[in-house]
């Protein structure tokens, strides 16, 4: 099954991470640039870098289902498959997006490999089947991006903000794209 590539805002959203190891840290690193409010629940924080991240709430204890209250997204980064399944079922019934790491059958969304340059975000997914391939594709695509990408992006952004919609604006946008690409 392939997943629809949907980009969503995480800014200010309440995200719960269940687990405190290296995998939890990698997931935190991936979402941090998108400015969510992150709560980590883990009996033990095994990856010390988690404790060094500012503005993350850490709860040192076993997971409780009440931890899911008022959460907009849940990431389960534990090896306990039974717990993954239970959290998945709970979230699925309540329509809370959930990702159980390395268990695509217990995910309503997947983490893509992505490239982020300011507001430009390029996501690559293999629908959870070959994450190493997605990462390799990300590296190849990043090498192909023009060096002046942000300059062009900012010019286009300014035009869209200042010019009225219509054919004139579209023509100007494509003139700039043709000039740089």
Nutshell version of this structure?
This protein has 6 helices and 7 strands; from the N terminus they run βαβαββαβββααα.
Task: Give me the secondary-structure topology.
Blueprint: E1 14-18, H1 22-31, E2 37-42, H2 48-52, E3 56-60, E4 73-76, H3 81-94, E5 98-100, E6 113-117, E7 120-124, H4 131-144, H5 149-162, H6 167-180
Parallel strand pairs: 1-2, 1-4, 2-3, 4-5
Antiparallel strand pairs: 6-7
Helix pairs in contact: 5-6
How would you describe this structure in keywords?
single chain, 181 residues, alpha/beta, Rossmann fold, 3 domains, 5-stranded parallel sheet, two-stranded antiparallel ribbon, 7 strands
Distance between the termini: 35 Å
Order of helices and strands: EHEHEEHEEEHHH
What kind of sheet is the major sheet?
A: 5 strands, parallel
* Helix vs. strand class: alpha/beta
Tell me the fraction of residues in β-strands, as a range: 15-25%
Total domain count = 3
Number of helices: 6
What is the typical, i.e. mean, pLDDT?
A: 95
Q: Strands across the major sheet, in which order? A: 3-2-1-4-5
Q: Provide the CATH topology of the largest domain.
A: Rossmann fold
CATH class of the largest domain: Alpha Beta
Q: Tell me the radius of gyration.
A: 19 Å
CATH architecture of the largest domain: 3-Layer(aba) Sandwich
Helical percentage: 25-40%
Shape: elongated
């Amino acid at each position: 099954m392939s997943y629809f590539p949907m980009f969503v805002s995480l800014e200010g959203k309440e995200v719960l991470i269940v687990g405190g190891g290296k995998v939890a840290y990698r997931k935190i690193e991936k979402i941090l640039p998108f400015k969510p409010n992150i709560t980590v629940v883990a009996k033990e924080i095994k990856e010390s870098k988690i404790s060094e991240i500012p503005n993350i709430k850490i709860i040192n204890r076993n997971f409780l289902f009440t931890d899911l209250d008022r959460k907009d997204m849940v990431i389960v980064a534990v090896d306990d498959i039974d717990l993954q399944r239970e959290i998945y079922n709970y979230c699925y019934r309540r329509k809370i997006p959930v990702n159980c790491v390395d268990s695509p059958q217990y995910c309503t969304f997947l983490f893509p490999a992505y490239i982020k340059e300011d507001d430009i975000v390029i996501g690559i997914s293999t629908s959870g089947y070959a994450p190493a391939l997605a990462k390799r594709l990300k590296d190849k695509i990043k090498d192909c991006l023009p060096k002046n990408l942000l300059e062009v992006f900012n010019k286009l952004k300014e035009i869209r903000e200042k010019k009225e919609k219509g054919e004139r604006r579209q023509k100007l946008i494509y003139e700039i794209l043709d000039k740089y690409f």
